[in-house]
Amino acid sequence: MEALIAMAVGLLTSCGVYLLLRARTFPVVLGLTLFSYAVNLFLFAMGRLTIGAPAILDPSRQSYADPLPQALVLTAIVIGFGMTAFVVVLALRARSDLGNDHVDGRET
Amino acid sequence: MSLSPHHAVIAPLLVPLITGILLVLLRGSATPLRRTLSMLGVQVLFGASLILLLRVQHDGILAYHLGDWPAPFGIVLVADRLSAMMVLLTSLLAVFAMMHAIQGSDRRGRQFHVLFQFQLFGLNGAFLTGDLFNLFVFFEVLLIASYGLLLHGLGAERSRAGLHYVVVNLVGSGLFLIAVGTLYGVLGTLNMADLSQRVTDLPAHSLELVRAAALLLCLVFALKAALVPLHLWLPGAYAAATPAAAALFAVMTKVGAYAILRVYTLIFGSTAGTLAGLVDAWLLALGLITIVVGTLGALASQRLARLVAYLVVVSAGTLLTAFGIGSIPAVTAGLYYALHSTLVAAALFLLTANVAHTRGPFGDQLLPGPMLPAANLLGGLFLVLAVAVVGLPPLSGFLGKVMILKASLASPWMPWVLGVVLTTSLLALAALTRAGTTLFFKTDPEAGTAILPSSADLVPVIALAAGSLLLVGYAGPLYDYVQATAEQLIYPAGYIAAVLGQATAVTSP
Does residue A106 belong to any structural domain of this protein? Predict the structure, then answer.
């Protein structure tokens, strides 16, 4: 499972970075989204991967899932969602103000 | 029931937060009411910050455990000398930026005051928080407010600059989370005092992971502090912003510098064993390059606002050079320089707004324009601020730069620091002289008439310029304060004891 998660994070990051470097705002927004998925998955995995373990300390059980990364990733998802909404609106605004969807506002 | 003195720590967060919420609720009401409330909030914040500073100076480091959860499990706010100083600086700046904004520029968008208050909430939170994840959260709060403030007033130039600014900062936030996640995954805590204790005895196999996370964090903070090559977002964004917002943004690069200073003295400071002094050489070298690049940008600027924005880059480079040297005198000098450069940069942004307003359609472009009816006043203020920002005697920039140069004498980098700082000061002087003569002396009789600047608009500029004079007048007590601050940073034992000790313990440094 670790290898799978690691590959997923890597794939999402590389796709995200590739799209971020495009010159149109729509791929950039998509790239940001993919990048934030990768970050969230990474942050979540930092509490170690466990299956079927409770998120509280229980003396009768051997393992537990660390609840803190779950709380952190929840915060990060909420913030990331708000930021994505903002950047979408901003990209639309820039499209109408500058007349095109190039990130520098000029056709080359 | 009496209020614990520790509540002074959370007051600088609650005041802008409550004011901001009230302003959201009152968004349909008359402009004078909202202006009064916003101004009142900023003034109360200034009072609260002053009380916090006096208390920290008197009682030592204050730790505020939210919900009385013991650190490192709960959220903790910590006010040491550095935090208290930065909070006071921010609120002082906010008072003058607000004085400028309520002259009319706040009416170009609907939510200026709300965003302004939330920006202050985020800034103060970033300065006061005691753990890395909340540092991230407060960064996001101040960034989303700054996105709004940057776009305040709208226009094509702001959309373009805003898009770059937002995307760059979102990538920065992602990297911040990766660094935070790595640190948590290896060390199992995010409380900065606790992290500081855990990095001292790391097993060899996790050392490299922590080093990677530490460098990634430095990258994120360097992005906020506008260190070369991560400075490219700044000139466009600051030059395009509303002047009142730009004046407040003068403290934003300082947030990055603050975070660098905090993390690399507390967590990866002298106690961190093999990880100690991890970024010092990077900061020094990149800081010096930043000074050069910023100065060249200032020389090439065609608009006054852009020139001032490049001077902000220069000041960020100077600051991080001082922090990169890393000794107590160097950090002392850097902190004094941070106070000076923030006030003067804000004053220059506000003065630019006045000049642009006076020149009508010519704005702040460095072209011969109409003869200015108040050229003596505006030009005089420009001269004073230029002298201060370049670092000529007798103003605060001179003292700050002399302190930094003196501190660099003990460093092996001394020839580089001296050479770069002195040469670029001369070049910055040339850039400002060119701007000043173009704006105030080279007038074009065909260019129409200029508008008289209103005296109310000039009050904040004069007050901030007077702040530079006060920094010189009270240099003695200020020096003592920043020196004690630097000592508190370099020897973080007091900070760690204050956070991880008893909830009510007050530890003197």
Answer: no
Cβ of residue A25 closer than 8 Å to a chain B Cβ: yes
Tell me: pLDDT of B1 over 70.
Answer: no
**Strand, helix or coil at B72?**
coil
With cut-offs at 50, 70 and 90, classify the pLDDT of residue A108.
low
Burial readout B312-337 (b: 16 or more C-beta within 10 A, e: otherwise) = bbbbbbbbbbbbbbbeebbbbbbbbb
Integer Cα distance of B147 and B84 in angstroms: 26
**Cis check: omega of the bond before B12, within 30 degrees of 0:** no
Q: Please provide residue A61's backbone torsions phi and psi, each rounded to the nearest 5 degrees.
A: -115, 150
Name the token pair of B406: 């003196």
Measured distance CA(A27)–CA(A18) in Å, rounded: 9
- Interchain CB distance below 8 Å, A94 and B182: no
Write out the residues of chain B at the interface with chain A, using a CB-CB cutoff of 8 A: 133, 137, 140, 144, 147, 151, 154-156, 159-160, 162-164, 166-167, 170-171, 173-174, 177-178, 180-182, 184-185
Q: What is the ipTM of this complex?
A: 0.94
Nearest-angstrom CA–CA distance, B508 and B493: 10
pLDDT in tens, B386-409: 999 998 888 899 999 999 999 999
Mean pLDDT across A90-99: 89
Residues A15-72: tens digit of each pLDDT:
999 999 998 999 999 999 999 999 999 999 988 888 888 888 878 888 888 888 999 9
Q: What is the mean pLDDT of chain B?
A: 89
Q: Is residue A24 part of a domain?
A: yes
The verdict on residue A70 lying in a domain is yes
Query: Out of B154, B171, B185, whose CB is closest to A46?
Result: B185
Domain boundaries, position A78: 2-51+61-98
- Which among B255, B184, B189, B242 has a CA at the least distance from the CA of B213? B184
Biggest CA pair distance of chain B: 75
Q: Which of B156, B166, B177 sits opposite A90 (nearest CB)?
A: B166
DSSP letter assigned to residue B491? S
Report pLDDT digits (tens) over B58-68: 888 999 998 88
Chain A contact set for B151 (CB, 8 A): 90, 93
Q: Record the pTM.
A: 0.92
Q: Is residue A30 part of a domain?
A: yes
**Total number of domains constituting chain A:** 1
- Per-residue pLDDT tens over the stretch B133-151: 999 999 999 999 999 999 8
- The Cα B66–Cα B314 span in angstroms is 38
Binning pLDDT at 50, 70 and 90, where does residue B4 land? Answer: low
Q: What is the mean pLDDT of residues B223-243?
A: 91
Residue-level pLDDT at A107: 67
The DSSP-derived string for B290-335 is HHHHHHHHHHH-SBHHHHHHHHHHHHHHHHHHHHHH-SHHHHHHHH
Tell me how close the Cα of B106 comes to any Cα of chain A, in angstroms. Answer: 20
